[in-house]
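Structure in, sequence out. Go:
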């Protein structure tokens, strides 16, 4: 009996095992749970980037400052003798009987326009003075005024600027042979051609038009400044000049005492010869100006 019972138990066990295997193969009709997706790692793999290219901003560089030219060797001894020496003026067309020019002098410049009125080149007392440049704009190897004014006494012995008065001549002989002025600085040789010669008073009551303060016309910062200067020197000009001028040109003005009326000045204005220009083309072309304006007491 017990043997029969054991056989039944074994048979049941076999049937149960077979059922389990069938369930595993068929899913037993239930929905099969999908396998979970692999978890995404919170730590992402490192991404290798190409090396960063650094861009260096280029700052525009300013051009180096201009270098002052070397002084001319021929004037070295004058500068050694007097450090106020800035140049030399010579007018070849106005000469002594022996042919030497009357005007052939060193030019100085200092901190005012009074010092050299009564001192010679050696800084010693002298009523004849020295030819000096207006002090407001220092003359250097790199810079000078658009219009440099030189002052000199009209000495009775003919020295310094006395023979500037020769341009007051009633004819054109003087200006047509002495229309070129040589004015060198310590650093540059240069020539100037005469544009205007005129007489002017230094007081308002000497004329019936506004006083022309030519000595204040140093730099032409605007076209209007330049036009004012040109209009006034041409209005008073003793001559009709063949020399053309334009804004941007450089000028030289010579000033000395005149005696046509008291407290008056005779003034000569010249334009710097441009690069490549031949100043000889102006020879003989100056004519008298019949309509020049004169101070009312000189008419």
């Amino acid at each position: 009996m017990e043997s029969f019972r054991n056989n039944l138990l074994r048979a049941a066990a076999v049937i149960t095992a077979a059922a389990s295997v069938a369930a595993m193969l068929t899913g037993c009709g239930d929905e099969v749970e999908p396998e979970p997706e692999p978890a995404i790692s919170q730590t992402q793999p490192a991404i290798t980037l190409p090396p960063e290219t650094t861009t260096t901003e280029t700052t525009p560089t300013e051009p180096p400052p201009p270098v002052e030219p070397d002084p001319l060797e021929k004037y070295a001894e004058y500068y050694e003798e007097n450090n106020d020496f800035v140049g030399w003026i010579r007018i070849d067309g106005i000469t002594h009987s022996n042919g030497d020019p009357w005007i052939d002098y060193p030019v100085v410049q200092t901190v005012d326009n009074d010092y050299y009125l009564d001192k010679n080149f050696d800084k010693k007392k002298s009523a004849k003075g020295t030819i000096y440049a207006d002090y407001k704009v220092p003359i250097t190897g790199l810079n000078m005024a658009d219009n440099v004014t030189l002052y000199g006494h009209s000495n009775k012995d003919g020295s310094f600027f006395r023979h500037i008065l020769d341009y007051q001549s009633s004819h054109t002989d003087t200006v047509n042979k002495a229309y070129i002025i040589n004015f060198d600085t310590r650093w540059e040789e240069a020539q100037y051609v005469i544009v205007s010669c005129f007489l002017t008073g230094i007081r308002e009551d000497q004329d019936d038009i506004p006083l022309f303060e030519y000595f204040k016309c140093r730099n032409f910062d605007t076209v209007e400044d330049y036009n004012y200067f040109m209009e006034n020197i041409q209005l008073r000009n003793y001559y009709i000049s063949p020399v053309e001028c334009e804004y941007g040109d450089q000028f030289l003005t010579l000033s000395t005492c005149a005696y046509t009326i008291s407290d008056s000045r005779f003034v000569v204005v010249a334009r710097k010869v441009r690069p490549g220009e031949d100043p000889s083309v102006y020879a003989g072309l100056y004519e008298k100006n019949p309509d020049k304006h004169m101070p009312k007491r000189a008419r």
